[in-house]
Design goal:
Main location: cytoplasm
Structural class: alpha+beta
Strand content: 15-25%
Distance between the termini: 17 Å
Largest sheet: 6 strands, antiparallel
Helix content: 25-40%
Function: Cell wall formation.
Radius of gyration: 20 Å
InterPro entries: ATP-grasp, ATP_grasp_subdomain_1, D-Ala_lig_Van_CS, D_ala_D_ala, Dala_Dala_lig_C, Dala_Dala_lig_N, PreATP-grasp_dom_sf
GO biological process, one term: regulation of cell shape
Organism: Polystyrenella longa
Length: 320
């Protein structure tokens, strides 16, 4: 890597990692294309690389100053690609391998939330080999309605709100299609919120409104009727509580770079953290680009700040 003034206008050689072979491949390709074009608009030399078609372990990284990770799902968000880049000593954006692995497992992240005093809905861990009696006993311990979701998956894939025991088998089948482990989690009836962070700085809070039962895959990436609000009919203390919960969730997992917290506000005005995404989407329907725009930051500048911060952090780690 060249010796850069990290905050200057030096042209960077950036490899955008996107695609892969996870269930979120198509969304990752869209995120990668967005990042690639935005960084090119800032004058950088950018190439997009798909790990599904190129072996990153044997790639010649001498043409790369920093990798921008836009890989969603397994390998991208579970610490796999981060661990490889750490071994290759290639600077990269986002959280390190340990924080990525922790955040990607919903059960592990929730245990960290609980240890850190971060309010998160009650849950039980389930496995595809659990018998029906055990599953129903665990479901009853949570109570209905409940949410069934894969332990390690993104974009709300395999997630179902279950309102009665009769609907549980179908929800379990959807969940175990994506992962052998799953969660049954207390459903928080209320409103949907999200807040991002970028290089240690909070992004504007967003309220999400959808005609769907929850902010599912189609509401995220397909439905143009989903509404994203930056002005709220809430008292300031409640808004502050949501923001503080998001920040506490980031701190508890040790995430860095760009990340996003998903939150539910119950009917009593109490916020609950659902999960933290260490590589949120960067598509035209994605929340992080909306938040950056709301803050008045052009997307190319936003991503450029991220890659320069990644370079600076890498440099500082090598000095210690």
């Amino acid at each position: 890597m060249a010796d850069f003034d990290f905050l200057s206008g030096d042209v960077l050689r950036i490899v955008v990692l996107a695609g892969g072979d996870s269930a979120e491949r198509e969304i990752s390709l869209q995120s990668g294309a967005t990042a690639t074009e935005a960084l090119k608009s800032r004058g950088h030399e950018v190439v997009q690389v798909d790990p599904a078609s190129e072996d990153l372990a044997t790639r010649d990284w001498s043409d790369c100053d920093v990798a921008f990770i836009a890989l969603h799902g397994t390998y991208g968000e579970d610490g796999g690609v981060q661990r490889l880049l750490e071994e290759l000593e290639v600077p990269y954006t986002g959280s390190d391998s340990s924080a990525s692995r922790l955040a990607f497992s919903k059960s592990a992240a929730k245990e960290r939330f609980l240890l850190s005093g971060v309010d998160t809905p009650a849950y039980v861990l389930i496995h595809e080999t659990d018998d029906a009696t055990s599953i129903h006993q665990k479901a009853n311990s949570i109570g209905y309605p409940l949410v069934v979701k894969p332990d390690a998956q993104g974009s709300s894939l395999g997630v179902t709100i279950v309102r009665s025991p009769e609907d549980l088998p179908q929800a379990l089948a959807r969940c175990f299609h994506y992962d052998c482990f799953g969660l049954m989690e207390q459903a928080i009836e209320g409103t949907e919120w999200t807040m991002g962070i970028a290089n240690g700085e909070p992004l504007p809070l967003i309220q999400i409104e959808s005609e769907r039962e929850f902010y599912d895959y189609d509401a995220k990436y397909v439905d143009d009727e989903t509404r994203f609000l930056f002005e709220f009919d809430l008292e300031s203390p409640t808004i502050g509580q949501i923001e503080q919960l998001a920040l506490a969730s980031f701190d508890s997992l040790g995430v860095s770079g760009i990340a996003r917290a998903d939150i539910r506000l119950d009917r009593f005005g109490k916020p609950w953290i659902l999960e933290v995404n260490t590589i949120p989407g960067f598509t035209s329907h994605s929340l992080i680009p909306m938040a950056a725009e709301q803050q008045g930051i052009e997307l190319g500048e936003f991503f450029e700040r991220t890659v320069r911060a990644a370079l600076q952090n890498s440099f500082l780690r090598r000095q210690n």
